[in-house]
Amino acid sequence: MPDLLLELFSEEIPARMQAKAADDLRRMVTDKLVAEGLVYEGAKAFATPRRLALTVHGIPARQPDLKTERRGPKMGAPDAAVQGFLKATGLNSLDEAKIQRDPKGDFYIALIEKPGRDAIDVLAEILPVIIRTFPWPRSMRWGARSGKPGSLSWVRPLHAITATFGPETEEPDVVKFSVDGIETGQTTYGHRFMAPAAINVRRFEDYEAKLKAAKVILDPQARKDIIFADAKELTFAQGFELVEDQVLLDEVSGLVEWPVVMMGSFEPEYLAIPEEVIRATIRNNQKCFVVRDSKTGKLTNKFVLTANIEAADGGKTIVSGNERVIRPRLSDAKFFYETDLKTKLEDRLPKFEQIVFHEKLGTQAARIKRIERLAAEIAPLVGADVAKATRAAHLAKADLLTEVVGEFPEVQGLMGKYYALAQGEDASVAAACEEHYKPQGPTDRVPTDPVSVAVALADKVDTLVGFWAIDEKPTGSKDPYALRRAALGVIRLIAENNLRLSLMKVAASALAGLSVKSADAEKLPSDLLAFFADRLKVQLREQGARHDLVDAVFALGGQDDLLMIVRRVEALGKFLESDDGKNLLAGIKRASNILGIEEKKDKRAFDGAPDAALYGLAEEKALAKAIGEVQAEASAAVAREDFAAAMSAMAKLRPPVDAFFEKVRVNDDDPKVRENRLKLLNEIRSATRAVADFSKIQD
Which residues have a Cβ under 8 Å from the Cβ of 220 and sit 6 or more positions away? Predict the structure, then answer.
């Protein structure tokens, strides 16, 4: 079966756009092929700085013929309807139509046959449309071609389109079309400097091999592997260790078509700057990797760069050029750092009076005061020193006004720690300046120092309560203030540090510190708790737990101790994995279903204690006795927070529940006996609610 080769050759495509562009090209072409009835066997897309390429193999040479039936008007319909039907279907007369008998009458049916087209003709039709509608984040138009203004919007000027189609055993044909005066062909070009001559290609294997010979590695992953392996080998050979950086590796691989790894150096005096600042300077400005000493683990005055050319001088000029650019950058960073050290963190705080955090929530200075107050209240609950937590909250945001953070925002918090230590602050206070932002994602580290935990919780809860109070909640996929991330951060801080906190009390305290008052102030803590419940479901689901178990625990009400909720959910999950748990759940569900039906029928609830005198069967008596014992045992276990024991107690209900449903007819002919048995079923439901609302659990 024929294969397609498509290449769009242009000026340099920004590295950050390449991966998505390759995926978009593959998706758009294959979607169109399938829509046209051309089901392919496989497809793969590639990107380099100067080209997008796609290979699709196993495409049928021709579309299948299509036969469709189109229903027309009833026999005897007005002539206008008949003529419209004939025109729409291409029939010459009703003699060419069939008659379909139907209970509503006899209808004309047209059998329309549409012969398939050659796949190469379909490609010639769909590919230019895809190119013209390609979803670049940003695109441009450029100068005239053949005296006419350019009409194509592309990320950078497009120079050539290669499009071939044909079976492996034959010479492929060119898929002929043109876009903005660019005619398709079989010609591409190699490396801009080392092999710029035109290359004639046939199909993908030939194309990829000729590009490699012309100093172009087509596959982005292959370029990443080369850069990573060569950088590791180069640093290891000199007794160093590469500081790995996947994001930088992804970007650098999109800047070169023929990666050549080299090492440069800078003056040792710059190592006096914090390592993170050195790394940010070299990474952001020159897209280079930093290097550690493999013995000490500290940064060295070396860096690794990736060139796009095999230079005649072995790369000396390239290395020298990078060193010449990095040197003043590091000099600036050193100046910023030394300048920052001259001003104490607290002396920067008055400037926050003029910086608005949010127009409805006041200035940054006001927010810092709220976090201080809240951190002081949370500190005793998490085992932190109140004075240290207050001091840390006071200083935590100050580094936002430093020169280094102004230049490199990614080191905020971290620089606060360095500056706090430099001015003699307690180690826990300094650590909290960095760690109060954490965790910032599912893989980020959770602080464990109590002072850091107190300030981190205060910071996140203040954010959540504040935006809840002004009704700026997340909606759908929109979450401009990262409130979902803040809530997950609170959950992880509590769960991973085994903290016992009343979220509603903390939220109420945060609300009391706001100058703006919520219209629904009384509802806000409980509304926010529901948001935490949703986030907890997400968190537990990602960990493999069932989100319906969270509903079953939250349904009991009054649950704002997240740690206990997590432990209860874990114990419930393990219980339901056992045979006792599964069978008891089925029995409880059966009891709830019967109660629901009978309560609806009688328009009443069957609550209240059953009358033991009305128990006529041994199974009733056994169930009633077991419920009393289990309810007491489970409640006591829950009170001492031994949820595993509570579940073990619940398991004792399984035999009497099974026996009851096997031997006892609930809807007895005697109304009093029926009512008593329904009350007994309600007792099952009530007893199990000591651990969870089993009605919320999915079968």
Answer: 18, 19, 22, 46, 47, 48, 253, 254
d(CA 214, CA 192): 9
pLDDT greater than 90 at residue 481: yes
Beta carbons of 341 and 424 less than 8 angstroms apart: no
Cβ contact 502:562 at 8 Å: no
List, for residues 546-587, the tens digit of each pLDDT value: 778 888 888 777 667 888 888 888 888 888 888 888 888 888
Helix (H/G/I), strand (E/B), else coil: 540: helix
The pairing of beta strand 182-185 with beta strand 158-166: parallel
**Residue entry with tokens 């008659």:** 99
- Give the residue among 175, 141, 140, 146 at the shortest CA–CA distance from 161: 175
d(CA 46, CA 354): 50
Q: What is d(CA 57, CA 294) in angstroms, rounded to the nearest whole number?
A: 47
Q: How far is 306 from 688, CA to CA, in rounded Å?
A: 64
Helix (H, G, I), strand (E, B) or coil at 506: helix
pLDDT tens digits for range 177-234: 999 989 999 999 999 999 999 999 999 999 999 999 999 999 999 999 999 999 999 9
Please state which of the ranges 111-125, 366-380, 385-399 shows the lowest mean pLDDT: 111-125
- Tell me the C-alpha distance between 53 and 589, whole Å: 57
**C-beta of residue 304 within 8 angstroms of C-beta of residue 230:** no
Q: Is 57 helix (H, G, I), strand (E, B) or coil?
A: strand
Which pLDDT belongs to residue 499?
93
What pLDDT is recorded for position 341?
97
C-alpha–C-alpha distance, residues 108 and 100, integer Å? 6
Q: Is 517 exposed, middle or buried (0-12, 13-18, 19+ CB in 10 A)?
A: exposed
Q: What is the C-alpha separation between 675 and 669, in angstroms, rounded? A: 10
With bands split at pLDDT 50, 70 and 90, how would you rate the model's confidence at 443?
Answer: confident
Instruction: Judge contact between 227 and 217, C-beta under 8 A.
Output: no
Compute the average pLDDT of residues 616-625. Answer: 92
Q: Is the pLDDT of residue 392 over 90?
A: yes
pLDDT in tens, 95-117: 888 888 877 788 888 887 778 89
Q: C-alpha 561: how far from its chain's center?
A: 27
* 3-class DSSP assignment, residue 266: coil
What's the rounded Cα separation, in Å, for the pair 129 and 312? Answer: 44
Write down how long the chain is. 699
Degrees, nearest 5: CA angle 531-534-536: 110
**Phi then psi dihedrals of residue 178, to 5 deg:** -140, 150
CA 122 vs. chain centroid, Å, equals: 37
3-class DSSP state of 99: strand
Judged against a pLDDT cut of 80, whether residue 370 lies above it is answered with: yes
Beta bridge partner(s), residue 160: 9
Q: Which residues contact 245 (CB under 8 A, 6 or more apart)?
A: 283, 289
Q: Is 158 helix (H, G, I), strand (E, B) or coil?
A: strand
Specify the pTM.
0.79
Between the alpha carbon of residue 595 and those of residues 109, 589, 660, the distances in Å are 55, 10, 15
CA atoms of 82 and 96, how far apart (whole Å): 13
List the beta bridge partners of residue 594.
none
C-alpha separations of 640 from 381, 498, 564, 567, 643 in Å: 19, 16, 11, 13, 8
Q: What CA–CA distance (Å, rounded) separates 215 from 237?
A: 26
559 — phi, psi (to 5°)? -105, 100
Compute the CA torsion angle 526, 532, 538, 539 (nearest 10 deg). Answer: -140
Q: How deeply is 118 buried, as exposed, middle or buried, from its count of CB atoms within 10 A (0-12, 13-18, 19+)? A: middle
Q: Give Rg (Cα) of the chain.
A: 36
If we measure between CA atoms, which residue out of 477, 476, 446, 443 comes closest to residue 460? 446
Q: Is the dihedral of CA 252, 255, 258, 263 positive or negative?
A: negative
